[in-house]
Amino acid sequence: MQEQIRAVGKIFIGFGIFGAVASAGIVAAFGGPSGLLAFDADAKHNDLTTIPLERLIAAAYIAFSLAMSIPLVVVGRGILRWQLWAHTGGILTAAATVLLFPFGTAIGIYALWVMLLPETEPLFVNPPESRKNAPVRSL
Q1: Which of 78, 92, 107, 111 is the most exposed place for a label (fewest CB within 10 A)?
Q2: Which whole number is the average pLDDT over 27-49?
Q3: Mean pLDDT to the nearest integer, 83-96
Q4: Which long-range contacts (CB under 8 A, 24 or more apart) does 17-26 make?
């Protein structure tokens, strides 16, 4: 059980870093936020209704992915350090990560399954002695 919990922490950190880098790269590839939300060239007027719908959806997805990156890394680190708050944070973060289809959905379902098992909470209340003060190694 301890290894599955630690796996969730590592996956959260990795997915958070990947999400931030990938989202920033996509925004840069479009030429920044103004390029991503560019108006339709054939439109006679420039307002929100002339931005193509797929670009608006992509911008919302990228913004949510960037916003989720920080909590994923912070909660993942707390899980690896057996912090009590990280148990609740892991459940909440996993529930929000389910919205990041397709990889976030799989990660969120797995993390919810692990974090909601009855054996999980006692491990955060009384952390394993061998792991309580151990330094956290990076991925």
Answers
A1: 92
A2: 73
A3: 96
A4: 17/69, 17/73, 19/65, 19/66, 19/68, 19/69, 19/72, 19/100, 19/104, 20/65, 20/66, 20/69, 20/70, 22/65, 23/62, 23/65, 23/66, 23/69, 24/66, 26/58, 26/62
Residue pLDDT, tens place only, 53-62: 888 888 899 9
User: Tokens 């976030």 label which residue?
Assistant: 104
Tokens matching residue 20: 């931030």
Q: Decide: 88 and 77 in contact? Cβ < 8 Å.
A: no
SS (H, E, C) the chain: CHHHHHHHHHHHHHHHHHHHHHHHHHHHHCCCHHHHCCCCCCCCCCCHHHCCHHHHHHHHHHHHHHHHHHHHHHHHHHHHCCCHHHHHHHHHHHHHHCCCCCHHHHHHHHHHHHHCCCCHHHHHHCCCHHHHCCCCCCC
The residues, ordered by sequence, that sit 6+ positions from 133 with a Cβ below 8 Å of its Cβ are none
Label residue 45 exposed, middle or buried (CB < 10 Å: 0-12, 13-18, 19+): exposed
Distance CA 17, CA 23 (A): 10
